[in-house]
Amino acid sequence: MDLLYRSTRDETKESFRASKAILQGLAEDGGLFVPEQIPRLATDFKDLAGRSYQEVAYEVMRLFLTDFSEEELKVCIGKAYDEKFDTAEIAPIRKTGGGYYLELFHGATIAFKDMALSILPHFMLTAAGKVQEQKDIVILTATSGDTGKAALAGFANVPGTKIIVFYPKDGVSPIQKRQMVTQKGNNTLVVGIDGNFDEAQTGVKEIFSDEKLKQWLTEREYQFSSANSINIGRLIPQVVYYVYAYGKLCADGELKQGEPLNVVVPTGNFGNILAAFYAKQMGVPLGKLICASNENKVLYDFFATGNYDKNRDFVLTSSPSMDILISSNLERLLFLLTGENPKQTAQLMQDLKTKGRYELTPEMKAGLADFYGNYATEEETAETILRIYKEEGYVLDPHTAVAACVYEKYKAETGDKTKALIVSTASPYKFTNSVIAAIAPEKIKDKDDFVLAKDLEKLSGVNVPEAVLSIKSAALVHTKVCGVKDMKDAVKNWLLKK
Fold first, then answer.
1. Per-residue pLDDT reduced to its tens digit, 472-485
2. Considering only CA atoms, which of 82, 124, 143 is closest in space to residue 107?
3. Scanning 46, 117, 262, 442, which has its CA 20 to 30 A from the CA of 54?
4. In this structure, are residues 72 and 126 in contact, taking their beta carbons and an 8 Å threshold?
5. Calpha distance 86→104 (Å, rounded)
6. On the CB side of 64, how many CA atoms lie within 13 Å of its CA?
7. DSSP label at residue 57
């Protein structure tokens, strides 16, 4: 039986197969595609425990992508989770510091976005063949740092695709920026914007909804899609690693079958923790879903009050991938909280657009019981990096440190002793300046991030990743910068040259 997808805002309840939803990325009405129901896992954890990452990926994905054949899915999985990862485990788990750290940074760009963006291009090409789509797919993406490089690496030189990435030119780490602006590929464009991530993300959504631009694209045989987690093809692969992690902990004797496991996720755009929520709905025995924010604590306030309010100062932090005030994937949760009411969901999102805020009803707020929210200040983040390093010799990047700090707050506040999986979203080598400043500030001395990487190698005992070494002397490819209002022109002008 096919699992179909619908828009969070469409009152007609029109449904689409997975391939169509993945290709389109964003619904015509501006809503996000959601499955009509969350499938239940067809096997128990006795069967999943001990299976490879690729095998678990197939068991999860086949339930969501029902119009993909077994062969098609296994080909996509095989091409995605291969030697691009520096460990055969793909997503190893490190037991340390009172928790289990799920390391999602062993892919080509040393961040968790590789887990989904390694497979999304293969999903798209397979889907295009299914719907007999002849137009070139133009991937349009806004990034707060990690999605951009992972998407560029995934789509570079893929036939039938072009990819345009917008990033806040002053809102990413030096390594993140260097990874993007040195990206090769005759189908890639990277543009820095004079603004923050929220403005980039809003600009991309407005481009998607521009009817005149859609017609302009159609005339030139192009169609837009997205590599952001607004694309359901990005979200589904993220569900996999929660299923895999639970099975792996059972196989290793760290968990008993059916024993609850809390999950701690450093969160900005709400996609990663939403994937954990989906995994729980599938039957994975996850306990509390702990949402960790940095000083841009809009999600902390939301879970505490039931009010979402982006009308506040935007803070640039040492965890830039979480410097977000508009958490796009929260719309998928809102849809469920409204009882799958597209009219109510659309009104909430309209309120966010026009007023910058919305408020949940008491009934909707009661639906947040699975979640807990808290945040870490910049000082607390640095203190956590230093503490874990001193106690365990384990180095965290700032995003993971936010999660570790919030986990300690959660335990102190609740007394909950349930075992916890802490999601480690990036290698510390992506944020060498912030990490060295926390561990050994005397070593900073105006060194650039590549020199600091060698210092971090000595401190951590972990070799500098190839992803960092390879960009040190790489030629600068992308230099374009534009204002937020000029994003649409940047897209059109580039495509006209192609």
1. 989 999 999 999 99
2. 82
3. 262
4. yes
5. 11
6. 27
7. H
pLDDT band at 236 (very low <50, low <70, confident <90, very high): very high
What would the pLDDT profile of 16-74 be if each residue is shown by its tens digit? 999 999 999 999 999 999 999 999 998 777 788 889 999 999 999 999 999 999 999 99
Band (281; pLDDT cuts 50, 70, 90): very high
| Cβ–Cβ < 8 Å for 200, 484 | yes
Taking the C-alpha atoms of residue 300 and residue 292, their distance in angstroms, rounded to an integer, is 8
Segment (H or E) for 488: helix 487-497
Indicate which residues carry an active-site annotation.
113
Q: What b/e readout covers 439-455, taking b as 16+ CB neighbours within 10 angstroms?
A: bbeeeeeeeebbebbeb
Q: What average pLDDT does the segment 143-163 reach? A: 91
CA distance 213 to 148: 23
What is the spatial distance between Cα 303 and Cα 137, in angstroms, rounded to a whole number? Answer: 37
DSSP 276-305: HHHHHHHT--EEEEEEEE-S--HHHHHHHH
What is the rounded CA–CA span in Å between residue 198 and residue 483? Answer: 13
pTM across the whole model: 0.94
**Structure token pair of residue 280:** 């729980």
C-alpha distances in angstroms, 497 versus 187, 475, 492? 11, 22, 9
